[in-house]
Amino acid sequence: MKRAERRFRRMIEYLKTKKKVLLLTTSNRWSNDSDVPKSSLLAMEVKKQLGKKAVLIDVSKLKIYPCEGDVSSAKGNNCGVKSCILKDKNKNPSGCHRCWASFNNSDDELWKISKELLQSDAVIFFGSVRWGQMDAEYQKLIERLTWLENRHSTLNESNLLENIDAGLVCVGHNWNTWLVRLIQRKVLDFYGFKTPWKLFLVWQYTWNPFNESLDSYKNARGKFLKDFGLENGKN
Q: Is the pLDDT score of 126 beyond 80?
């Protein structure tokens, strides 16, 4: 068993101890059933292993507006204040979803994530490393969840995330995945999640940042499947 598969299986065993796990995929690469993004394949495998206790959401398929940047507006920090509560019991059963972008856009679908997140005791983000950072869908989501961090860091209210484990699985081709893991773990620390190391996993095809040959991109998928012990599966 290769190191990547061993660490991946260890992550799954840890998640099996949880009551409800939210799996969020953020790769928006066009795909079909025979060419699912690599990070999404790992999320699907976790879902398969955890069964009904796991909820899998493809973030790229939701309509999520960009963050409005209310942390540093002319009025100061106005992010997550009580006046922007989402007044819909179906979308916001906890009464805790407070985000101006949701308040100002009735078709915003961030609630589909926050509703599941606040009912979970673990969340894992799965995405791609592009140009040295996480993909755009991941970054948009993290910025839109700022109200959760702002609630306890600036507004001096309770930390809604303190009992939720968070992790990140990031897949890249030739540059910076390890640094991305370190930075995003720190980000999730700031947000107030618990961040055990066993929930952070990276995979990178080559350590040569200048290797962008056609052959390397074609060969990456096969190596990925082999490294994670998925080569005999459907995908």
A: yes
Beta strands in 115-155 (DSSP E): 122-130, 133-134
How confident is the model over 163-207, as pLDDT tens digits?
A: 999 999 999 999 999 999 999 999 999 999 999 999 999 999 999
Q: Strands (DSSP E) along the chain, which ranges?
A: 21-25, 54-58, 122-130, 133-134, 165-172, 200-204
Residue 22's nearest CA partner among 128, 145, 134 is 145
**Is the Cβ–Cβ distance between 58 and 40 less than 8 Å?**
yes
Sequence-ordered list of residues with C-beta below 8 angstroms from that of 106, at least 6 positions apart, any chain: none
**What is the pTM (predicted TM-score) of this model?**
0.96
| Number of domains forming the structure of the chain | 1
Domain ranges, residue 203? 3-227
- Quick one: pLDDT at residue 235? 47
17, amino acid identity = T
